[in-house]
UniProtKB/TrEMBL annotation:
InterPro entries xrefs: HATPase_C_sf (IPR036890), Heat_shock_protein_90_CS (IPR019805), HSP90_C (IPR037196), Hsp90_fam (IPR001404), Hsp90_N (IPR020575), Ribosomal_Su5_D2-typ_SF (IPR020568)
The name this protein goes by in its record: Chaperone protein HtpG
Swiss-Prot/TrEMBL keywords: ATP-binding, Chaperone, Cytoplasm, Nucleotide-binding, Stress response
Subunit structure comment from the entry: Homodimer.
Residues reported in the UniProt entry to bind ATP: 31, 35, 77, 82, 90, 97-98, 117-122, 167, 341
CC per GO annotation: cytoplasm
Species annotation: Paenibacillus albiflavus
CDD domains assigned to the protein according to its UniProt record, in alphabetical order: HATPase_Hsp90-like
Predominant place of localization: cytoplasm
Length: 559
């Protein structure tokens, strides 16, 4: 049987594709700039391969020009250009990527920095333009060609004049409609912002003619208009620089520029990983709790770059919930992107990076705790609660990561201490890690239940956060020591001489206790003589898993 070819209504297909794969129209500029950058990368590669030629960096750039009067936006590059055949193949065939082919042809192992791979980005320009006019002259060729298309109707190719090697794309920007505004893509400030957002770290200069006003020379009170060519992008991303070249101030500037927060970071980690997962990252721990941090509105995530091009603003998969306060970015060359390059396929690479990052954050926090206690305490004040939630959630499966990062107020030290510090101070006869829960340090100090333990000379941890006791229940034991509430029935303290007295008291006051039990029948289970009281006449104690404080919290929770 003869095989038939699929037919596609290419007009519809193009429209469907353009309008369904991208969520943000502004992305067209990222795509065209990425193509221009690829084209320069390719000429760079060719020049390097040809020993006769020198690559003079000065001559390689991308130029963006907006012309409001004619409604055109022009993206010109000094890259490798396209021959007539390449125009046909690359811009005439949807999903044909000349860049992917180039990588294969030249057996470029790591693909260098070439971005293109899907062969669709170019057409995204039709989201904002009615007409695209491409003039191009290929490296090593004397002929130049013009490709033109109104999108759906196909395209034309004809010879044209062009002085220099490279490609120029002239977009005729759509008119505004009732529902859609396109004028913004002719505005200098808007274009600059889009370039900064997505293409700041393209390695070649992206230039624009910028207009401004300045005081006229010789006449202070008069202004004059001027126009100058500016490079809009920063080119070298800070994360590719050597750590030794960078100061704390550089990192702080980056934090501010990126608007990760309006405070200062307490600390940062700069990661250059080239093990199983190859990536660069800069992570920050903010000083203050963002105002919406403990609400549903707060969105965790790191910025994700692929080869210096921004892919996602907040990639949530890179951070566990208990480290959701971390800000920063990750750049990796080997991510599998989806076709719009706005999202990732869930891949092994990403989970590897995430795991790696989690460990780095943990060790950064541990060294902060060890070497810069004050800063750690500031951090803990802002985000300690999140760590405790982390211990509690997922049935305590994260306790190994987190338990050494926890701190509680200590009855003897009168400050925050870690569990490790507590245990290392425990006298030999002390069996348990004691804690007392209450609203505040002041309140807990007054609790009659603490007296006996304190009297024995044992340290008590004060739990003032609702979550504390729940988190501890998940940890269960720390360094083989169990936790014990000072209000639990059996404190595990060796009986002393007083013990016989309580038995006597028990007998002497039998009638009184019975009477009290009768009156408090629906409130208490038992009334008995206690050996833990010193200056207080009476106290409450519990049996079983739940303590009084936990019961209070559970009762207060909505069902
Ligand atoms: P991709 O970049 O994923 O390959 P595009 O649709 O963005 O897909 O571009 C298709 C192809 O057109 C590119 O692979 C490249 O070969 C060619 N191309 C696009 N823009 C340029 C340019 N400015 N200079 C040279 N070639 C280009
Ligand atoms: Mg592309």
């Amino acid at each position: 049987m003869a095989k038939k070819q699929f037919k596609a209504e290419s007009k519809r297909l193009l429209e469907m594709m353009i309008n369904s794969i991208y969520t943000h129209r502004e992305i067209f500029l990222r795509e065209l700039i990425s193509n221009a950058s690829d084209a320069i990368d390719k000429i760079y590669y060719k020049v390097l391969a040809d020993n006769q030629l020198v690559f003079d960096k000065e001559n390689y750039f991308i130029k963006i020009t907006a012309d409001k009067a004619n409604r055109t936006l022009t993206i010109a590059d000094t890259g490798i250009g396209m021959t007539k055949e390449e125009l046909e193949n690359n811009l005439g065939v949807i999903a044909q990527s000349g860049s992917l082919a180039f990588k294969k042809e030249n057996e470029m192992q790591d693909g260098h920095n070439i971005i293109g791979q899907f062969g669709v980005g170019f057409y995204s320009a039709f989201m904002v333009a009615d007409v695209l006019t491409v003039t191009t002259k290929a490296f090593g060729s004397d002929e130049a060609y013009k490709w033109e298309s109104k999108g759906a109707d196909g395209y034309t190719i004809e010879p044209c004049e062009k002085d220099s090697v490279g490609t120029t794309i002239i977009m005729t920007i759509k008119d505004n409609t009732e529902d859609d505004q396109y004028d913004e893509y002719l505005e200098e400030y808007r274009l600059k912002a889009i370039i900064k957002k997505y293409s700041d770290f393209i390695r070649y200069p992206i230039k624009m003619d910028v207009k401004g006003q300045r005081p006229k020379e010789g006449a202070d009170d008069e202004l004059e208009e001027y126009q100058e060519e500016q490079t809009v992008n920063s080119m070298v991303p800070i994360w590719r620089k050597n750590k030794s070249e960078l100061t704390d101030a550089d990192y702080e500037n980056f934090y501010n520029e990126k608007r990760y927060g309006y405070d200062k970071p307490i600390t940062h980690v700069h990661i250059k990983a080239d093990g199983a997962a190859v990536y660069n990252a800069i992570l920050f721990i903010p000083e203050n709790t963002p105002f919406d941090y403990y609400t549903k509105e707060y969105e965790k995530g790191l910025e994700l770059y692929s080869n210096g091009v921004l892919i996602m603003n907040k990639c949530a998969d890179l951070l566990p919930d208990y480290f959701s306060f971390v800000k920063g970015m990750v750049d990796s060359e080997d991510l599998s992107l989806n076709i719009s390059r706005e999202m990732l396929q869930h891949d092994r690479q990403l989970s590897l990076i995430a795991k790696n990052i989690k460990n780095k954050i943990k060790s950064q926090l541990q060294s902060l705790l060890k070497d810069e206690r004050e800063k750690y305490e500031q951090f803990y004040k802002s985000f300690g609660r999140q760590l405790k939630y982390g211990v509690y959630s997922e049935y305590g499966s994260n306790k190994d990561v987190l338990q050494d990062l926890l701190m509680f107020y200590s009855s003897t030290e009168k400050k925050l201490v870690t569990l490790d510090e507590y245990v290392s101070r425990m006298p030999e006869d002390q069996k348990f890690i004691y804690y007392a829960a209450g609203e505040s340090v002041e309140r807990i100090e007054k609790l009659p239940q603490t007296e006996m333990v304190a009297d024995k000379g044992y340290e008590i941890l004060y739990f003032t956060d609702d979550i504390d006791e729940f988190a501890i229940k998940m940890i269960m034991t720390y360094k083989e020591k169990e936790f014990k509430s000072v209000s639990s029935g059996d404190l595990g303290i060796e009986p002393d001489a007083k013990d016989n007295e309580t038995a006597d008291e028990e007998n002497e006051n039998k009638e009184l206790f019975e009477a009290m039990k009768g009156i408090l029948a629906d409130k208490v289970k038992n009334v008995k003589a206690s050996k833990r009281l010193k200056t207080h006449p009476v106290c409450l104690s519990t049996e079983g898993e739940l303590t009084i404080e936990m019961e209070k919290i559970l009762k207060a929770m909505p069902n």
